[in-house]
Amino acid sequence: MRRVLTGIRPTGHLHVGHYFGMLRQTAELQDHFETFVMIADVQALTDNFHQPQKVRAMVLEVAYDVIASGLDPRRSTLFIQSLIPEIAELTVFYGNLVTVARLQQNPTVKTEIAQKRALFGDSVTYGFLGYPVSQAADITAFDADLVPVGDDQLPQLEQTREIVRRFNRIYGPTLKEPQARVLDTARVRGLDGDAKMGKSLGNALFLCDPPEQTARKVAGALTDPQKQRLGDPGRPEVCTVFEYHGLFSREKLASIATECRSGARGCVACKRELAGGANAFLGPLRARRAELEARPGEVLEILMEGTRKARAVARGVLARVKERMHLDYLGGAA
Fold this sequence. Notes:
Elements: E1 3-8, H1 16-29, E2 34-39, H2 41-44, H3 52-68, E3 76-80, H4 85-94, H5 100-105, H6 107-115, H7 117-120, H8 126-129, H9 131-140, E4 146-149, H10 154-171, E5 179-182, H11 211-219, H12 240-248, H13 253-262, H14 267-293, H15 296-324
């Protein structure tokens, strides 16, 4: 059976952008692929190295969000990255196959370095610059055929593919070259109209937000700046609230657009309707999450069992890599 790998950084609670992007679509893939979901705590440390307790605390929180969103531990393997030492070993090997200049040219890395200037100043860390190499190890350690990504992450996956091709060219056919599954909803705009919803940008609806907090956040969402009052014709195509209606109430979208353009729909009422639709949609997910929060020991055991299964796969891949690299000094034992 073909395999899919999804990685999630535990740097904060997951938001609706994550849900409509990777979580929902990974849940759909678990019926057709052997699905691995990695809680990437090592990668989270590349820009949270100064607050490891935050990353540690968020591992379980992210697991609650993931399972509540539809990832079934009976059909998917959920595991913790740092508990798979084979990934770290592969990262070291792959570091010899990519130049510093190539990493610096990676568009995603360049963008993220610019965003992290307050943290790094003018000198980025080795770990942050090299995290595409770690991602290549994540993906190849499980012989992943498919990796769900947003279009902004395609340069990262291409870096993995380059490393795979170079390894196979030097050492012989060993590693599987993964393909991208570009997410149908790759990006959800932030409530403030920013191009992307983000954990640290203050513009996100989190899956764990209580209903009243969701309503407050929606009330402050950006609408068409040219529509000042009821009766003014609106432009739904530039309105963030309208975009969110497309997530939670798609069946009403045509009538909402018509009412907006005619001026018959006011922004306050439109936001109130959106808050109701969002809370109705997220209600069952929140209920499942609350049940999981009440049983943290069971969720931790799910992660431990998934990690045991994932490590068995990674151990086999590493043994194959070491054999090709003539590093199997113990007769093939990893």
